[in-house]
């Protein structure tokens, strides 16, 4: 990537992302004596470990919370497990105490002298409930406080994350949907459950997301990101398309999908409802995102157009093949002594340009904000500016690709070009940090 400011013009300099873009804390109340949400009293004391309350409600997925607890403790967090009484029928108190290193109680009458029903929530940097049953979601939405966990939820002034797990019919019931909407309106992060095998032979939406992905959401929330995308519906494409030559071979690219998945993960942590259109990606589904799997550019186009029906923003992070074979062989092409026939290519649809054109012409549906990605090997900013003008998007994230750059790496660097403002340079760092800067810029436009 070019050095800071390289490629800038006199009328449009490249601005470096400010400290805090991609790493700021949640905004707090105006009263300086009132601790900000996510910033309880004593949070900045030297040597203090971030305090996390892990609420566990009575679902069969409670055993998976043990893995989430391990991830939280091993990353240096002080975790207090607060199960419901019924949850202890799935995983017992000794297990939670041994894994957390802290005492475990489910009742407000335990250790009354410490006033746990108030203190636990007051001192927390984060409360995460995993699994969150329909019962606990209903109690939280209506402010009921019949046990230690629901009391903790009422007294917490920090970010709260719910990871629901239940049968599909329960998740889709109007009462549950209304409770989820209420919690989200109040600023809670409610992660949509995953699709997969449920209790017994049932399959559908309602499965607890992978504990590692729930942990990633918690990590981003603890980093202090604002919930400025709450209520927003976002569509993100990721990965690289493949255009079949025959049943065995294809034309493809090196995209791993890591940047698109980072965009999805960080958007969920900021409260958004995310549809992730994934092209040939071998990564675990980000917690809370609805994943639509595709292979070719045509399939990706169809999935994006369908998903953006009610989307506020579309981010095209996938590497879409520009060309495809004019004809596909129905059987494997055999190697013979003769030279192979040439493969005639035709253009694929330009999905990003099509989104911009739909908006210009007022063809609904179209998103309010359109973000594109440009992978370049040379003349990075010049090619990026030409592409921004050609595609008609609001933001274009331009990054240099090549050996050990961008594709398949955990880090990335980019310059974000804007149709209505100065470029912003994002220095090399984790792809989640780049994603947060992109969402900062998107959130401002949506606001």
Automatic annotation (TrEMBL):
Keywords: Decarboxylase, Flavoprotein, FMN, Ligase, Lyase, Magnesium, Metal-binding, Multifunctional enzyme. GO terms for molecular function: phosphopantothenate--cysteine ligase activity; phosphopantothenoylcysteine decarboxylase activity. Residues 1-233 are annotated as: Phosphopantothenoylcysteine decarboxylase. It comes from the Bacteria. Pathway: Cofactor biosynthesis; coenzyme A biosynthesis; CoA from (R)-pantothenate: step 3/5; Cofactor biosynthesis; coenzyme A biosynthesis; CoA from (R)-pantothenate: step 2/5. It catalyses: (R)-4'-phosphopantothenate + L-cysteine + CTP = N-[(R)-4-phosphopantothenoyl]-L-cysteine + CMP + diphosphate + H(+); N-[(R)-4-phosphopantothenoyl]-L-cysteine + H(+) = (R)-4'-phosphopantetheine + CO2. CTP binds at residues 322, 332, 349-352, 373, 387, 391. Residues 1-50 are annotated as: Disordered. Residues 234-447 are annotated as: Phosphopantothenate--cysteine ligase. Binds 1 FMN per subunit. Its EC number is 4.1.1.36, 6.3.2.5. InterPro entries: CoaB-like_sf, CoaBC, DNA/pantothenate-metab_flavo_C, Flavin_trans-like, Flavoprotein. Its cofactor is FMN; Mg(2+). Residues 12-28 have a biased composition (Basic and acidic residues). Pfam families: DFP, Flavoprotein. Residues 51-220 form the Flavoprotein domain. Residues 229-443 form the DNA/pantothenate metabolism flavoprotein C-terminal domain. HAMAP family: CoaBC. In the C-terminal section; belongs to the PPC synthetase family. In the N-terminal section; belongs to the HFCD (homo-oligomeric flavin containing Cys decarboxylase) superfamily. Catalyzes two sequential steps in the biosynthesis of coenzyme A. In the first step cysteine is conjugated to 4'-phosphopantothenate to form 4-phosphopantothenoylcysteine. In the second step the latter compound is decarboxylated to form 4'-phosphopantotheine. Catalyzes two steps in the biosynthesis of coenzyme A. In the first step cysteine is conjugated to 4'-phosphopantothenate to form 4-phosphopantothenoylcysteine, in the latter compound is decarboxylated to form 4'-phosphopantotheine. This is Coenzyme A biosynthesis bifunctional protein CoaBC. It comes from Streptosporangium brasiliense.
